[in-house]
Amino acid sequence: MTAARIKKNPSIAEWFYFPTWQRAIAQVYPTSAAEKPRLVLIKPIDAPQSLTYLIEDMERRCELIIASVSDEGRLVNAIVDHQKIEVSEFELLWKLLHRSGNSPHVIVHALSSIDHGYTRTVDSYEEQLDYLNAFKRASFFPLIEIVRSYANSHDTRQIKFVCLTNDTTQVESGDRSDPYRAMLQPCPKVVAQELPFITGKSIDYRESDVIENASTRQLVVTHLLQEFDKSVVAVRGNSLWLQSFEPISLDGTLIKPVRPSSEGAYLITGGRGRIGYTMAHYLAKTFGANLVLTGISNVIPREEWDSVLCDPLASAEDKEEVTKLRQLEQYGSQVRIVRCDATDLQATSALIFEIEREFGSLRGVVHAAGIFESQRAFRGILDTSLEDCERRLLPKVNGTLVLSHALKGRKLDFLYMQSSLSAILGGFGFLAYSSGNMFMDMFAEVNRNAELPWMSINWDGWVFRDNDDEAHIRSVVSPAFASPDFGVVAEIAIKPAEGQVCLDRLLKWGQASQILVSTASLDTRIEHWVDRSLLKNSTGENTTELREASELAQIIAIFQDLLGVNKVDPSSDFFALGGDSLTGIQLASKLSATLGRNFDIIRILEEPTPLAIFKQYGEFVREAQN
């Protein structure tokens, strides 16, 4: 499986996909087995009734270890061999299990099963923030600690990691949906991509089914234990459902068209960024729309635009922004640039009132706020901090909540949220980013109505360059080493003009809460980049022999074996030798199996030479000695 198989479809009309679910054949395996798998279930202290029923079935079918976590996300105790052990850190739990011969085959994160109240009517912004913060403390942040602590235990045997949720998404008519719990769905994909000894899966069930139906419980537990071939499944009653994406052709035919107007104004949060400006340019050129573009950097006053263009000391960024704004005005649009934090409800509400006062009405919104270029792009699970995760989530999650309250009582032509294919494909360093995008996708599904027609658009990767000959391609959605299947390489990424065509097609198409934009076959990309569990076990047959060589020689030998090249020296670059992100996963897997340490794949791909990897291994050894 190489990136060469992923080719950009020349027909933009065929880039669009609609999310759906397909019923699959559900096979329930016998409950007795010669060797029971060992499963660690991580649950809230006060487990809901449905989880209690599932525990009973798990105890019959596997060696069950139960770890209980408080509402604040702290490990409280664990039950191992039917004995309660007081343990307060996951790192200590993994060491204890490893030393006692109880290393797990499956780790199940079931911390989202506690209901903090989202299913009731939540009116105030403060209540929603309280729920969001409670969810992050009790479920999202512990997931990061669980995975990171296990990886740092350097147990490199293959294990399964499952996010077990209930009532997260609408599969059948009448199902409830929860945008907060949905944030967990992409996490196993990213975990499995970054940590090659882990395979990941998300399983969602309907709580009432598990309580009332023994066969539903058996089906859920079966899919916790069996080999993973799909990363996202749902159990409803006695049926298994697989997430699917239906291609649709948008050739520009008017279906339920949205017709922007030169009257009123359109707000683009993050409109001063590259994607936001691309949307603004289309609206101005096509409709002469009046525009309000926001960002968090300082605003150049309108009366200083001329002087900025003439000032030799002015920054290139300021000159570029003024030039773009002038271009928008040439189309007849009135343009306002405003410094406004999209996560500040008071500031956003005040801005909307000001727009209505000046322009008469707010006609539409594009929510494109995000953090892309101002810092080190994205950090892997082993390297990320909770603060970095918060920074990623804020514009996506909090920004969406702010808009939903600031726009109450209004009627818009359109309300587009700029989501990403990362919610479906994952990607190195994309744990919080993909989760924030998934929140937007589910929020649009839950809240779309005639007055506020929320639509989440899962965009492919974008590239921006001054001309077609420019060698250095900048992406606003990923680091340079991210999966070529994700769409950040020049050959398949969306260029600004293509993105404008997509927006035009979406406006002509009309009504849906979610649409995906993939420049290459989405099914093929999911197969290559997500549903590839067989790739995990491809660690080679010469691991034993490699262990007998020196560490640096072992690393060089792994390069040679994996890439099929003979000449590799300590400074050889993995990508220059023909490697890509998919073979990078195999590289990390072989390194972990051979050297007995879990390597940070993000760091490997940032410094992809045998010498740099050898230095990373040396750090592991020193840490162990200390």
TrEMBL record:
Phosphoprotein found in the keyword field: yes
Keywords: Phosphopantetheine, Phosphoprotein, Plasmid
Coiled coil: none
All copies of domain Carrier, residue ranges: 546-621
GO biological process entries: fatty acid biosynthetic process
Domain of life assignment: Bacteria
GO molecular function, a single term: fatty acid synthase activity
UniProt cross-references to Pfam families, sorted A to Z: KR, PP-binding
Protein name: Phosphopantetheine attachment site family protein
Lineage: Bacteria, Pseudomonadati, Pseudomonadota, Alphaproteobacteria, Hyphomicrobiales
